[in-house]
Amino acid sequence: MGKFGWGFCGSDAFFRMGLATALSTISAALAQEPKALTVDPVALQATLDTMAAEMLVPGAAMLLRTPQGEFTATFGVRGLNDPTPVTIDDHIRIGSNTKTWTGTVILQLVEEGRIALDDKVSKYRADVPNGDNITIEMLLNMRSGLFSYSSTFALNDALDRTPDRVWDPEELLAIAFARRPISSRAKAAPTPTPTRCY
After folding, report:
1. Using CA atoms, how far apart are residues 131 and 125, in angstroms rounded to an integer?
2. Across 145-169, average pLDDT
3. At 136, which helix (H) or strand (E)?
4. CA-to-CA dists, residue 51 to 10, 55, 58, angstroms
5. Contact of 28 with 119, CB cutoff 8 Å
6. Beta-carbon neighbour count of residue 2 at 10 Å?
7. Are 7 and 61 in contact (CB under 8 A)?
8. What is the rounded distance in angstroms from the CA atom of residue 82 to the CA atom of residue 84?
9. Please, what is the angle between helix 97-111 and helix 13-32, to 10°?
10. pLDDT of 36 higher than 50
11. Where does the pLDDT of residue 6 fall: very low under 50, low under 70, confident under 90, or very high at 90 and above?
């Protein structure tokens, strides 16, 4: 896991999102006022233990980098059928964890005023098919209508034949951009209907 920062041996998205948000908030606070906030490693471990146990996550590893230094914590075992304790050096399949990390960074950029959720994707990449009609928010909500490169036979065949291959993001985008968008119209998230509680 060392290179990835922190990861999870489990699939609970809410746990990942909550911990990612908490860690990014702590990191931001430490970056702004390094002396105003201190990290208690014992409390950090206890928080990880409690959250992971409540969410029934079999294992987790965390690395928090701050101006004060690095703090690590681990919880549980590598898998449901693997009793080996998680270590900070374990490697994980990153999979969809990237979505949580990317979403967290994008929302931080929005908070800093560097981008806006209603910005058109074409503002940042002119080559995105239908990019003039797709917003950052639509990308985050996975409602852009763009073709998913991960559903192509060519990519899946390459992943089976060369599982250790490191893909350049531009290669993956080229696969997606070569196909027509699934929908010519990107879809905004539906407006929630107010619910009455009696």
Report:
1. 8
2. 89
3. helix 136-140
4. 13, 6, 11
5. no
6. 12
7. yes
8. 6
9. 40
10. yes
11. very low
pLDDT tens-digit readout, 88-144:
988 777 778 888 888 999 999 999 999 999 999 999 999 999 999 999 999 999 899
> What angle do helix axes 13-32 and 41-54 make, rounded to 10 degrees?
160
In angstroms, the CA 15 to CA 75 distance is 13
Residue with tokens 């979505």: 99
Phi and psi dihedrals of 112, rounded to 5? Answer: -80, -5
| pLDDT band, very low/low/confident/very high, at 190 (cuts 50, 70, 90) | low
133 torsion bin: left (phi>0), alpha (psi -120 to 50), beta (else): alpha
Q: How do strand 7-9 and strand 59-66 relate by DSSP bridges?
A: antiparallel
Q: Which amino acid is at 52?
A: A
